[in-house]
Amino acid sequence: MPRDDASVLGAKLDRISYLLTAVVVLQIVELLDLDVTSLAFLVVVGFFVGTLYNADV
User: Fold this and answer.
1) In sequence order, which ranges of the chain are alpha helices (DSSP H)?
2) Residue 42 and residue 34 in contact, taking contact as beta carbons nearer than 8 Å
3) 3-state DSSP call for residue 2?
Protein backbone atom coordinates (compact mmCIF):
# COMPACT_ATOMS: atom_id res chain seq x y z
CA MET A 1 0.00 0.00 0.00
CA PRO A 2 1.53 3.32 -1.02
CA ARG A 3 2.08 5.94 1.65
CA ASP A 4 -0.67 8.22 0.31
CA ASP A 5 -3.24 5.41 0.51
CA ALA A 6 -2.15 4.65 4.07
CA SER A 7 -2.67 8.25 5.17
CA VAL A 8 -6.11 8.35 3.53
CA LEU A 9 -7.03 5.11 5.27
CA GLY A 10 -5.77 6.49 8.57
CA ALA A 11 -7.90 9.61 8.17
CA LYS A 12 -10.97 7.50 7.42
CA LEU A 13 -10.33 5.34 10.48
CA ASP A 14 -9.96 8.48 12.61
CA ARG A 15 -13.33 9.76 11.41
CA ILE A 16 -14.95 6.39 12.07
CA SER A 17 -13.44 6.35 15.58
CA TYR A 18 -14.79 9.84 16.29
CA LEU A 19 -18.26 8.85 15.09
CA LEU A 20 -18.27 5.70 17.21
CA THR A 21 -17.12 7.68 20.23
CA ALA A 22 -19.90 10.21 19.69
CA VAL A 23 -22.49 7.42 19.43
CA VAL A 24 -21.25 5.80 22.64
CA VAL A 25 -21.30 9.13 24.50
CA LEU A 26 -24.83 9.86 23.29
CA GLN A 27 -25.96 6.41 24.40
CA ILE A 28 -24.42 6.96 27.86
CA VAL A 29 -26.14 10.36 28.13
CA GLU A 30 -29.46 8.76 27.19
CA LEU A 31 -28.97 5.80 29.51
CA LEU A 32 -27.98 7.88 32.53
CA ASP A 33 -30.55 10.60 31.75
CA LEU A 34 -27.97 13.35 32.31
CA ASP A 35 -29.01 16.99 32.65
CA VAL A 36 -27.15 19.98 31.19
CA THR A 37 -24.81 20.38 34.19
CA SER A 38 -23.79 16.74 34.16
CA LEU A 39 -23.30 16.86 30.42
CA ALA A 40 -21.06 19.95 30.74
CA PHE A 41 -19.02 18.17 33.41
CA LEU A 42 -18.68 15.15 31.12
CA VAL A 43 -17.45 17.41 28.31
CA VAL A 44 -14.82 19.04 30.56
CA VAL A 45 -13.58 15.67 31.83
CA GLY A 46 -13.48 14.34 28.27
CA PHE A 47 -11.49 17.36 27.14
CA PHE A 48 -8.86 16.81 29.83
CA VAL A 49 -8.67 13.07 29.21
CA GLY A 50 -8.27 13.74 25.48
CA THR A 51 -5.58 16.32 26.17
CA LEU A 52 -3.64 13.90 28.35
CA TYR A 53 -4.09 11.08 25.83
CA ASN A 54 -2.72 13.20 22.98
CA ALA A 55 0.13 14.78 24.98
CA ASP A 56 3.65 14.13 23.78
CA VAL A 57 5.15 13.01 27.06
Assistant:
1) 3-32, 36-54
2) yes
3) coil
Q: Where does residue 14 rank: exposed (0-12), middle (13-18), buried (19+ CB within 10 A)?
A: exposed
CB 22 within 8 A of CB 32: no
CA distance 39 to 1: 42
Contact 29, 39 (CB under 8 A): yes
| Cβ contacts of 13 within 8 Å, gap of 6 or more | none
pLDDT tens series, the chain, 57 aa: 556 677 888 888 888 988 998 899 889 888 988 888 988 888 899 899 989 988 876
Q: Give the C-alpha separation, 19 to 29, whole Å.
A: 15
